[in-house]
Amino acid sequence: MAQTSLSSLLPARLQVLLPSRYRSYRHPVVPTLRLSGAIGAVTPLRSGLAMSGVAQMLERAFSMPGAKAVAIVVNSPGGSAAQSHLIFKRIRSLAEEKKLPVFAFVEDAAASGGYMIACAADEIYADPASIVGSIGVVSAGFGFQELITRLGVERRVHTAGKNKAMLDPFKPEDPEDVARLKGLQRKIHDVFVELVRSRRGEKLNDSYEDLFSGAFWVGAEAVDLGLVDGLGDVRTIMRQRFGEDVQFRMIEPARPPLLARLIGRRAVTGGSLLDPAEIVGALEERAAWARLGL
User: What is the pTM of this model?
Assistant: First the structure.
């Protein structure tokens, strides 16, 4: 049976049942996925983004038959620089391998590592109320040395390597440790700045001195600065680009195994599996959003 007659027997939504060589695509297809949450460790109380969690989604999006482009909806206050960079590189690698354009759409925020991920797109769009930018590096913690003194607790640390206990929160801050940390931050910041320059190129408004200061802006300001290409949402822009009959294929994350879901539910509802570290992680994520006024 001829290719056209075989594919014409099935509606478009059932075309996936046919081998790819027999499919016909009457309408442009745009695989769409959401990358939402803080970037870094993902736990029962801290849903977010990590390379391990998004790799399969990206593979599915870029491998979808008939795709004309890939749309990525970004909503993140940032987080781990390494995980952000890994996700960025995977998107670019797949885009070049599959020869597909990538469009990023900012919801509440694409800040810090969230903006790094957005830069993997060939074009970035935001809402007028979106928060965009925060091109910088931050490290935050607590100092408990006075607290344990009041409690009568003696801190005992034994290391092999003088810098192994650097920035111990239970010891007074050492200026040498701070200087070393700032040196590491500068190097990561340089990587971030170079990445943005390489992706945004001449679109950037370099005359604005705070562009790489860690400051952030709303969508319209981000357009003027060249951080995004325009204002708009995924449906509107993709219909303008590929026509009114464009079809979106939502790429959903794989559901975790039943046991993992039960463990997460028990932790959230106050079961004995609740770890204080989970609470701290959730508070840190809330603080990341709060820094943006969200």
Answer: 0.76
